[in-house]
Design goal:
Layout lengths: L6 H20 L3 H14 L1 H27 L6 H8 L2 H9 L2 H28 L3 H24 L5 H4 L14 H4 L13 H13 L5 H20 L5 H48 L1
Helix pairs in contact: 1-6, 2-3, 3-7, 6-7, 6-10, 6-11, 7-10, 7-12, 10-11, 10-12
Main location: membrane
Subcellular location: Membrane
Protein name: Inositol phosphorylceramide synthase
């Protein structure tokens, strides 16, 4: 049995890592973080709406798998990818193979990747950097909206499933991966790589944060996640290229929308404030 015996264990590990990263990044106790986090969503309906939108789009990823089954679209472009790339993933996996590396990359792929999104939201909300919070929300929405049509009409099965000399190494750490984790990620939902796109997106947005630890951590994590998708035998090189392009585009688009929204809110606030000040002056005269 591996260290991840079920999704329950994955959830426990994820919660522990989230707490650790938040404490390290914010240098305060977790209770204070939770209180401020809850207050930010109770007192600000706009924040809550953005969070709900993100949760809904993540849930749509699960619905996509059900729609895919009903479509019964049998095409698979994995062989085309294989002909283009050759033995790239096989060579990476065999060259770097090591038991400790397998545990480390599996942990990053399953646990750290998820915590990146949760902790990013926690940091931006705690530090009241709502502009980055909105940028991240928009970027996640854009990522899934762009990726869904590819998963439905451009199916590409994973490398280990297509090339016999490539193994799904994550089985060594998470034996029930196919039975439990597959409920959230289809075996033919390869292009573009969401692990690549979302980790790159979070790194790009974090680059604008004043939190130095989080800037470096997300950047390093993006590199590790990209290496992991090859080493574990999951994604093609072309998947990474598509995910990289989508990640950069989503981050830039999300930042642009958030910046415009912030500017609009400031102008609207100024228009409300100026008349009220003038009215106060007239009354005093």
């Amino acid at each position: 049995m591996g260290p991840f015996d079920s999704m329950t264990h994955v959830s426990i590990y994820t919660a522990i890592i989230v707490i650790i990263l938040l404490v390290v990044a914010l240098r305060t106790n977790p209770i204070t973080i939770v209180i401020k986090f809850v207050q930010a969503f109770i007192s600000n309906g706009k924040n809550l709406l953005h969070l709900i939108a993100v949760l809904l789009i993540l849930y749509m990823n699960k619905l996509e798998l059900q729609v895919e089954q009903k479509l019964n679209f049998t095409a698979d472009f994995a062989q085309t990818f294989s002909q283009i790339e050759g033995k790239f993933v096989e060579n990476v996996q065999h060259f770097f193979y090591n038991d400790l590396l397998t545990y480390f990359t599996s942990f990053y792929y399953v646990i750290i990747f998820t915590t990146l999104m949760i902790v990013s939201i926690g940091i931006y909300i705690y530090q009241k950097n709502y502009q980055l919070f909105y940028a991240l929300c928009y970027a996640i929405l854009i990522t899934y909206i762009v990726a869904m049509p590819f998963y439905l009409f451009f199916p590409v099965t994973e490398v280990w499933y297509t090339q016999p000399k490539v193994d799904l190494l994550i089985h060594n750490v998470f034996p029930t991966f196919e039975q439990e984790y597959r409920l959230m990620s289809g075996i033919d939902n390869c292009f573009p790589s969401l692990h690549t796109s979302l980790s790159v997106t979070m790194a790009f947005i974090a680059a604008r944060s004043e939190n130095r630890f989080w800037r470096y951590f997300t950047a390093i994590s993006a590199v590790i996640v990209i290496f992991s998708i090859f080493y574990l035998g999951i994604h093609w090189f072309l998947d990474m290229c598509g995910g990289l392009a989508l990640g950069i585009f989503a981050a830039k688009a999300g930042q642009y929308i958030a910046d415009r929204q912030t500017t609009k809110d400031k102008k609207l606030g100024a228009r409300v404030t100026v008349p009220s000040q003038s009215k106060t002056q007239n009354l005093s005269e």
